Every structure is written in structure tokens, then in C-alpha cells.
What does this fold into?
Amino acid sequence: MSFDSSEKLWKLLGLMLKSHPWHGVPIGDDAPEIVTSFIEIVPTDTIKYEVDKDTGFLKVDRPQRFSNVCPALYGFIPQTYCGDQIAEFCNQKTNLEVEGDGDPLDICILSEKQITHGNILVQCRPIGGFRMIDGNEADDKIIAVMKGDLVYGNYRSINDVPQIVVDRLRHYFLTYKQIPGDQKKVTCEITHTYDQDEAFEVIKRSQEDYYTKHGDLRGLLKNMIRFGDDSELGL
It folds into this structure.
């Protein structure tokens, strides 16, 4: 099957079937400078939602503790994975021995607009991030601004963000896993707040981890049908 034919079939599948937000949505040709992100929760949510890895639907993860709500759009970058490359980078920066958390790379997006529900895609520009350790796992949080946003859209560095906004994000991520009535101690720490260049490196490494773990889905499709007859597919 020719490259052109496999691309046509990929597009046809995208028209017929809803894409899985983790595996079926491209990160974007301009990554890591501009990335597509899938939003799971918004600042008005009092429930933490997250994508179900098997089905791609949003599911209820847990209620937020008391009035603790996310101060920004929150979700993940498609076709990323926090594995060995992410863990290695974290270990270099912290002199710790941690593992990747096995999830897509988390991202929070600043915008002056009030967006009232998740389950949407947002184009954004990463400007920095938090190096967060959750137990014994690297759990980076990329901080980005919505592309074209009138207030935040021109920011290029985490240093452009008002400190009170950064503090609110830090407080949320250090407390958001506390569950009402649960006496178990949650061990999370943010070791560093880093700028755009490190955010880009984290994103690139998470892409490498993704392809190591899941491979190239388009290539997999091409291999599955490479012995088929193009004429039978109408391509």
C-alpha cells in the first residue's frame, strides 16, 4: 500500500469513528512550541474527571476536597507518555530515583476566557512547568497559555505569569489528591518550577516514551493492511 493510500484510509477512519483523545488525536505539527491538549476539567468543576484509558470517555475520578478547584484548564497532551525518558530527566535534575507515572503528560492552560466544560481540544503554547514527584513517580505538570488568548496569549516564559497565579497552581497540585474522609497521607512535592526550554524537553521526551510504549499507530495500520489490495479499499 502506498503512503498516499494509507493516509487516505487513516483520514477515512477519522471521519467514521470518534478518535480516542489519547491515541487518536495528533499533538500537532508545531510541537513542542504549540501543542494540542485534551481538557478533562475546568475551574468550575468540583469533581475531578479523567479520561478512561480503555474507552476514551471521561470518568469521575474523585470529588475535589472542600473548595479546592483547579485554577486553570487541566488535561493532558495526546500521544505522550511518562516513562523511562521522563524518569531519567527527572532523576538528572533531582538526584532521585523515580519512575514515570505511566500516564500521558499533564498540562494546565491559562486563559482569561471562562470555559464551562471539559472534553474539548485546545491549542496552547507551553511556557514552563512543575517538576512534581508523586510518591516514587515523576508527574510533571506543564504550564501553558491558550493560543490567541488576549491576556495570556503573548506569554513566552513562566516568569511572565503573575506569582499569585503560579502559587495557586502549586497549591492545587500539592493538595488535589487529598480525598474527603481519607486519613492516608498523600506524598506529593514540587521540586522545581522550570521555564519554557525545559518544558519543551519534557514534552519531547514524553513523545519518545509514547512511541516506545505504543508505537506509530499510522505505521501499525499500514502494516496491518500492507498485503491487502488497494483496489478493494477504493484507494
User: Anything to note?
Assistant: The CA atoms of residues 130 and 141 lie 5 Å apart. The chain has one domain: 3-227.
